[in-house]
Amino acid sequence: MKLYISADIEGTAGITRWDETETGHPRYAYFAEQMTKEVVAACNGAMQVDRGCQILVKDAHDSACNLIPSHFPTCENIRIFRGWGSDSMSMMAGLERDCDGVFFTGYHSGAGMDTNPLAHTMNRQNNYVKINGMIAPELMINSLTAAYLGVPVRLVTGDKGLCDWMRAINPNIETVAVNEGRGRGTISMLPSVACGKIQAAAKRALEKPAKDCMFPLPDHFHVEISFKEHFRARNAVTYPGVVQTSPTTVEYDADDYMDVLNMFDWVL
Ligand SMILES: [Zn+2]
């Protein structure tokens, strides 16, 4: 079995403030460690189903050098992709068609959602990104990448708003809501409890038929981006096909999702 894990930090158990996500801040090290523990829990759950499971972990937050490799079990089947791959797959770099499933850990609500104080989409420069009229968190952008490659999404861990969002789209996809956003705060389960639930959910997730866990892939993509600052919309229209529809809003249409990813890579 081949598994891909995309790991972020803003949906890690207990995380609440931006400085807790930033390298060099005193509280960052604690959350980088908890981010790592949650990925390790997901790996352990997968290896309960298939001891020889080949796992590629994409560190997908900020510098993409957050995970602590020495915290992983000694296992030659686990590899970690640190840093950015300089391609439009972004947080999904390295995912291939022959993969049996994707896990998302530490994921967070998107810009325009009110269910995580750290809600954002790719950066903090937009009010929202919409795909086919729906607010698109990073989870949607990346689940569509998985769907594009024919790979099922099996597990999402992060804030409750994001988990509820995914369950509304496909209730077969396992979720673990480790945090619940309350205004500028969060109510979180304890870190060790979160890891236990993630390991159990990872195991359940890989025991389900792949066909039940597909994220729906539309045959056309209408994208709308609302920037916080007008000059970003002005810059965005330099990308072919991007149309400005208000001082701060741009729109883009494509049938092939890779075209959308290429546009995001330049415009977001
Ligand atoms: Zn992040």
Description:
By secondary structure, this protein is α/β, with parallel strands linked by helices. It has two domains: 2-114 and 138-213, Rossmann fold (3-Layer(aba) Sandwich); 221-267, no CATH class. The protein is built from six helices and twelve strands. It has helices at 28-49, 138-148, 160-169, 191-206, 230-236, 257-267; strands spanning 2-7, 54-59, 78-81, 101-107, 126-131, 134-135, 153-159, 174-182, 185-188, 221-227, 243-246, 249-254. The strands form two sheets. A seven-stranded mixed beta sheet has the order 3-2-1-4-7-8-9, with helices on both faces. A five-stranded antiparallel beta sheet has the order 6-5-10-12-11. α1 links the parallel β1 and β2. α1 packs parallel to α4 (191-206). The longest helix has 22 residues, at 28-49. The chain is globular. The two termini are 34 Å apart. Bound molecules: zinc ion.
Quaternary structure state of the chains depicted:
single chain
CATH superfamily label of the largest domain: Dipeptide transport protein
Number of strands: 12
Helix content: 25-40%
CATH topology of the largest domain: Rossmann fold
Q: Which word captures the global form? A: globular
For the record, the CATH class of the largest domain is: Alpha Beta
Rounded mean pLDDT is 97
Give the uncertain stretches in residue-range form. Answer: none
Series of H and E elements: EHEEEEEHEHEEHEHEEH
Q: What kind of sheet is the major sheet? A: 7 strands, mixed
Based on CA atoms alone, the radius of gyration comes out at 18 Å
